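About this split. The held-out portion is used to measure sequence recovery: a designer receives only the structure tokens and must propose an amino acid at every position. Recovery is the fraction of positions where the proposal matches the reference. Here is one held-out target exactly as it appears in the evaluation file.
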């Protein structure tokens, strides 16, 4: 076997290892996040905590989680993914176990807030790691597949929490998953590599050149950027209007996702009369539809819209408006129809979600600011998600559950509008690049 072939094989193995470690890591974060939605009714019944108290817990968790996103994004570009994610998982696991051992609203709020802060290390850290190993020509497809971690993760976490709750009580649904998360955190600290070595980086640049249709034989690795260049790149993303428009769009989209994630089992049990474990299993249809949506929409963006991913995200989010309207109309029709309609919501929700929070962050942040942009976009989304507890509890009590879903439809429309503006900016940017290329060609001639 030739040396170049050996290098390519080693590079492929290293990339797959990073993919597998980061995918597993972020999927596992949901083991300390999805247990509360499943256990809400049991906690309320056993300890007498009201729906307003449960909503308060969600609000505290998400408020601190939002803060953690901005901090985690800043730290991720400085500390590296391995330390940020590994230590974040260990701390999150410890506070989840503490929550499961508590019995008062005050301690629930304290430990859930601390858990949320360290949970927030996951997204910017894993996005940072993936951006170092996969190039822009393949990000839509790769990150679409990778983003199944936040559909499969909730799916498995919900099933595990439901099984533990039924078999051993709601406390086990917090303590056992925390052990799993702590173990994965230790693995990340031991095995995750933040970036390729020089020979692997050369293979990455060769692959990028081949994907762009060029000759990869004479590719050389560019020298590392000096500190001032890195600092300027991180400052530039703060001035980029697309970053903040994506943050605005993700504000509405993540609020929708968390309303459904945090309250779907409760809605199915209390409003539609399904048993607790049945309601938990039915709610996983959102993630099942999301798996298909993230992969399909990511691949479409790579093939036809690699420089205008806003177009794909806009169309998919308009589809989300339609999907939510259909779910509002047919959710009470029966179990099968409910599950199918919820899966369609997941398809139209998680597809643009993956593009906005993952691929766009890598495209806009580049090598030096991917974690920062991921933290900003996901942080803005998490600010929106803070409102989910108040929105669901107050709107459902005053106006009914149909009004809750009508509100989500309005949020989807707002997100689609923000993405349409991103699309417009990408079209303008593309035209400027074409004019610049034409001018350069003319000058050379």
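Reference sequence for scoring:
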């Amino acid at each position: 076997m030739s040396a170049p072939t050996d290098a390519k094989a080693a590079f492929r193995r290293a990339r797959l290892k990073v993919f597998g470690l980061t995918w597993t890591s972020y999927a596992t974060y949901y083991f300390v996040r999805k247990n509360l939605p499943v256990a809400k009714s049991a906690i309320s019944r056993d300890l007498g905590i009201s729906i307003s108290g449960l909503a308060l817990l969600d609000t505290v968790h998400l408020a601190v989680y939002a803060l953690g996103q901005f901090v985690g994004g800043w730290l991720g570009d400085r500390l590296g993914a391995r330390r940020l994610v590994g230590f974040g998982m260990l701390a999150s696991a410890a506070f989840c176990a503490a929550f499961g051992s508590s019995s008062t609203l005050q301690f629930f709020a304290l430990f859930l807030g601390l858990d949320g802060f360290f949970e927030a290390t996951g997204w910017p850290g894993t996005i940072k790691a993936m951006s170092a190993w996969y190039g822009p020509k393949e990000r839509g497809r790769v990150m679409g597949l990778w983003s199944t971690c936040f559909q499969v993760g909730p799916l498995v976490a919900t099933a595990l929490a439901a099984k533990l709750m039924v078999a051993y009580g709601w406390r086990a649904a917090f303590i056992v998953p925390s052990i799993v998360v702590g173990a994965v955190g230790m693995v990340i600290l031991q095995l995750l590599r933040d970036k390729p070595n020089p020979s692997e980086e050369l293979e990455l640049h060769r692959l990028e050149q081949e994907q762009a249709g060029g000759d990869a034989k004479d590719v050389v690795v560019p020298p590392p950027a000096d500190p001032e260049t890195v600092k300027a790149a991180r400052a530039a993303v703060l001035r980029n209007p697309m970053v903040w428009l994506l943050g605005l769009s993700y504000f509405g989209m993540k609020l929708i996702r968390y309303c459904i994630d945090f309250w779907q089992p409760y809605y199915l049990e209390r409003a539609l009369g399904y048993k607790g474990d049945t309601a938990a299993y039915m709610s996983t249809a959102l993630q099942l539809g999301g798996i298909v949506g993230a992969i399909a929409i990511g691949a479409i963006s790579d093939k036809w819209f690699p420089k205008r991913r806003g177009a794909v995200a806009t169309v998919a989010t308009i589809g989300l408006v339609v999907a939510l309207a259909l779910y509002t109309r047919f959710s009470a029709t029966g179990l099968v129809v409910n599950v199918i309609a919820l899966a369609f919501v997941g398809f139209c929700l998680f597809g643009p979600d993956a593009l906005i929070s993952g691929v766009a962050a890598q495209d806009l942040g580049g090598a030096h600011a991917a974690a920062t942009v991921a933290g900003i976009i996901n942080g803005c989304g998490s600010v929106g998600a803070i409102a989910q507890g108040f929105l669901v509890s107050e709107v459902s009590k005053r106006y009914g559950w149909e009004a809750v879903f009508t509100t989500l439809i309005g949020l989807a429309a707002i997100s689609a509008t923000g993405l349409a503006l991103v699309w417009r900016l990408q079209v303008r940017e593309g035209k400027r690049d074409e004019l610049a290329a034409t001018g350069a060609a003319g000058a050379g001639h």
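Annotator remark: The longest helix spans residues 335-386.
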